[in-house]
Amino acid sequence: MTEITGRHWLMIAVLGLTWGGTFMVVEIALRGITPFWLAAARIGLGALVTSTIWQLRGGKLFAQRPTGSHIRTLAVIGVFSSAMPFMLLNWGQQYVTSGFAGVSMASVALFVLPLAHFFVPGEHLTWRRTLGFLIGFVGVSILIGGQALSSSGAEMELAGRIACMAAACCYACSVILMRRLPAVNAIGLAAVLLLIGSLVAIPVALIVEGPPPALDGETLIATLVLALIPTAGANMLRVAVVRSAGPVFATLVSYQVPLWSVLLGTLFLAEPLPSTLLWALGLILCGMGLSQYGPLMRLFGRRSNAAQQGSPQT
């Protein structure tokens, strides 16, 4: 039985704040760097850090010899878990707020539901999951089509919204594909996926945006922060949470990310906070909670029982 301690709660809180604040830092970085080069720099530096740590820990990836299918799946995951979503999010954040981008990431868990139903054996859309998906889908519809942002007259605002949601779809696809992999070293997996992502993002940045731009001090710091903290550091922290507290507990970070992104964007970037954005956020979080009701209740039910069994009798 997994015992959830105060250390685990602190770790999950740090993850939520780190990933929730990522969108604010991206907004700052985009003032001095083009979106695809920001993605390439973030992925490339993150790959360098995680690969170094992975090699120091032995450099082993698969527990058993992988098949050609496993290698191909790994390559696709590398594209869908870093290269594509990072480029889409950076491009989209040129036209939408960081708060919007963060809220759009809450829809990843919703997109996973129908994909798992069709592509993962044993994962079916129960009535509760279906209802949760429908509620969340209403929130996503409001997010894309409603006035979730105060319109600044940007002609590409709708395209930016769609790009953010497309990034969420990429993450959902990578989650499903990861279930096809055999047992792997988690840190090695993070390193390899970032390496694959960099092999895609760097050439795309060169082709689309030309040579990398010269960076001012603020942009350089923001880029380094993105590479080292949310890309490399937080991914390894997530590995530690999953290993010590379980994957269900780790999903709690998904509820924090959109909240932090909206709060930080409002406080530090003076971003607008329209009611439709809050409605969309509330519906998406409700849909997520309802669709994951069973696993979460089992998690906290076990924790409650363990606490009762360990309490002194009076």
UniProtKB/TrEMBL annotation:
Topology of this chain in the membrane: Multi-pass membrane protein
UniProt KW keywords: Membrane, Transmembrane, Transmembrane helix
SUPFAM superfamilies hit by this protein: Multidrug resistance efflux transporter EmrE (SSF103481)
Compartments reported by the entry: Membrane
Chief localisation class: membrane
Domain (EamA): residue spans on this chain: 10-144, 160-290
Residue spans crossing the bilayer: 9-30, 36-54, 74-92, 98-119, 131-152, 184-208, 220-241, 248-270, 276-294
UniProt superkingdom: Bacteria
Official protein name in the record: EamA family transporter
